[in-house]
């Protein structure tokens, strides 16, 4: 059996996903980081961006995460986010409308959020 | 039907209508308590993980941060009071307000100037009626607070604490909320949120766990910078949720006793109505008997 790490993806008001994984890729403020089992204990600040979790049964879970933290110790990884959505929870059409609106209004933060959602949705 | 009896009947009807309403409110509140409790439970994983992370940075590095260092001479303090938008919850709001007033008095005795922030229309109304100064108020979400609401409440508070005291900032942040102990017990209490005592945070973390030496990304200061505001928000969110659950529990209890009282009142009124009806019947009988015997006496007299 390949080494595994336990992942908990939690948003402020709910637990979004939890399970075993072999690789987690997330975007911290200083760049993308990939965490595999046996990684050194880590605590980092996340940027809004897609998080990719390669589950131990070979599947892939993608989530759009907006701000938060990644912490890893003893093969347990927690992703804390104020807002987190799994890719299949994202309504692509609505997000596209949001993106249009954000572009029209010049709202950079909203544009970035919508963009992250769309990329997460495209990656499923 | 006699006038007395009619009055009793009318009062019984109105009290039963009230009883129906309070019964319905009791049931609604009961279902909302369960919902609110579920929300508290759903927010727990985030809070636990955040607490762990804060403990890890706090114990694993010697970083100083404005949110964790105590001012030498704290001169100003902010008090955040959580009340509800709606009443009919027994002593829920007055207990919270009383706790806030005691805290304010204590802080003022220590020579601190107090800025009050209020959540919930009830608290706002109480302070406005007494024409007390309130720094900021938030209303409209106390029944079902969301994380976005907690962020909205936390933002001005964090801003105030990061500002220099001389420029209108505060040195301390206290929160007054109603802790949901159980369905029957809710206690209003105050707690100091900031500056954070890292030892206290460490006590909340699971015991007997040795925290690993973390590698901070990008740096311990930056992580702490990002973590602490989130920690405050999460604490405020938790307090909002507990207040909401407590409010619903208090409403349920108040409405239950209102329903019980209405039932008692109906019983008493029905007894009085019965007595009035009986008195009316007795009166009628005695009138008939009296009339009959008077007639009998009269005829007996003319026969003679």
UniProtKB/TrEMBL annotation, chain A:
Residues 5-83 form the ATP synthase F1 complex delta/epsilon subunit N-terminal domain. It is found in: Cell membrane. The keyword Cell membrane applies. InterPro entries: ATP_synth_F1_dsu/esu (IPR001469), ATP_synth_F1_dsu/esu_N (IPR020546), ATPsynth_dsu/esu_N (IPR036771). GO terms for cellular component: plasma membrane; proton-transporting ATP synthase complex. Pfam families: ATP-synt_DE_N. GO terms for molecular function: ATP binding; proton-transporting ATP synthase activity, rotational mechanism. CDD domains: F1-ATPase_delta (cd12152). The keyword Ion transport applies. It is a peripheral membrane protein. Belongs to the ATPase epsilon chain family. F-type ATPases have 2 components, CF(1) - the catalytic core - and CF(0) - the membrane proton channel. CF(1) has five subunits: alpha(3), beta(3), gamma(1), delta(1), epsilon(1). CF(0) has three main subunits: a, b and c. This is ATP synthase epsilon chain.
TrEMBL record, chain B:
GO terms for biological process: proton motive force-driven plasma membrane ATP synthesis. PROSITE patterns: ATPASE_GAMMA. InterPro entries: ATP_synth_F1_ATPase_gsu, ATP_synth_F1_gsu, ATP_synth_F1_gsu_CS. Keywords: ATP synthesis, Cell membrane, CF(1), Hydrogen ion transport, Ion transport, Membrane, Transport. It is a peripheral membrane protein. It is found in: Cell membrane; Membrane. GO terms for cellular component: plasma membrane; proton-transporting ATP synthase complex. GO terms for molecular function: ATP binding; proton-transporting ATP synthase activity, rotational mechanism. Signal peptide: none annotated. F-type ATPases have 2 components, CF(1) - the catalytic core - and CF(0) - the membrane proton channel. CF(1) has five subunits: alpha(3), beta(3), gamma(1), delta(1), epsilon(1). CF(0) has three main subunits: a, b and c. Belongs to the ATPase gamma chain family. Produces ATP from ADP in the presence of a proton gradient across the membrane. The gamma chain is believed to be important in regulating ATPase activity and the flow of protons through the CF(0) complex. This is ATP synthase gamma chain. The lineage of its organism: Bacteria, Bacillati, Actinomycetota, Actinomycetes, Kitasatosporales.
């Amino acid at each position: 059996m390949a080494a595994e790490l336990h992942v908990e993806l939690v948003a402020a008001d709910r637990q979004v996903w939890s399970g075993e994984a072999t690789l987690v890729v997330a975007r911290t403020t200083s760049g993308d980081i990939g965490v595999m089992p046996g990684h050194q204990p880590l605590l980092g600040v996340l940027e809004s961006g897609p998080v990719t979790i390669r589950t131990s049964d070979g599947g892939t879970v993608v989530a759009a995460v907006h701000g938060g933290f990644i912490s890893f110790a003893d093969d347990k990884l927690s992703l804390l986010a104020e807002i987190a959505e799994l890719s299949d929870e994202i309504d692509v059409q609505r997000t596209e409308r949001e993106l249009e609106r954000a572009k029209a209004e010049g709202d950079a933060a909203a544009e970035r959020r919508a963009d992250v959602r769309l990329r997460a949705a495209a990656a499923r | 039907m006699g006038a007395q009896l009619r009055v009793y009947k009318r009062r019984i009807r109105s009290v039963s209508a009230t009883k129906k309403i309070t019964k319905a409110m009791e049931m609604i509140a009961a279902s909302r308590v369960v919902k609110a409790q579920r929300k508290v439970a759903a927010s727990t994983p985030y809070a636990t993980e955040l607490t762990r992370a804060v403990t890890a940075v706090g114990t694993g590095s010697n970083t100083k941060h404005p949110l964790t260092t105590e001012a030498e001479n704290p001169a100003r303090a902010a008090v955040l009071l959580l009340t509800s938008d709606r009443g009919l919850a027994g002593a829920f709001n007055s207990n919270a307000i009383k706790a806030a007033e005691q805290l304010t008095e204590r802080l003022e005795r220590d020579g601190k100037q107090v800025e009050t922030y209020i959540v919930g229309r009830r608290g706002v109304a109480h302070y406005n009626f007494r024409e007390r100064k309130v720094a900021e108020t938030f209303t409209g979400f106390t029944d079902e607070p969301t994380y976005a609401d907690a962020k909205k409440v936390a933002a001005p508070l964090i801003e105030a604490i990061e500002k220099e005291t001389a420029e209108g900032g505060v040195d301390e942040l206290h929160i007054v909320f109603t802790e949901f102990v159980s369905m029957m017990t809710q206690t209003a209490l105050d707690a100091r949120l900031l500056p954070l005592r890292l030892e206290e945070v460490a006590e909340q973390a699971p015991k007997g766990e040795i925290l690993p030496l973390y590698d901070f990304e990008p740096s311990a200061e930056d992580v702490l910078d990002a973590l602490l505001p989130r920690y405050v928000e999460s604490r405020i969110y938790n307090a909002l949720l507990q207040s909401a659950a407590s409010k619903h529990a208090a409403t349920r209890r108040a409405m239950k006793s209102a329903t019980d009282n209405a039932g008692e009142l109906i019983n008493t009124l029905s007894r009085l109505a019965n007595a009035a009806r009986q008195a009316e019947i007795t009166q009628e009988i005695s009138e008939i008997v009296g009339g009959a015997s008077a007639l009998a006496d009269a005829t007996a007299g003319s026969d003679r």
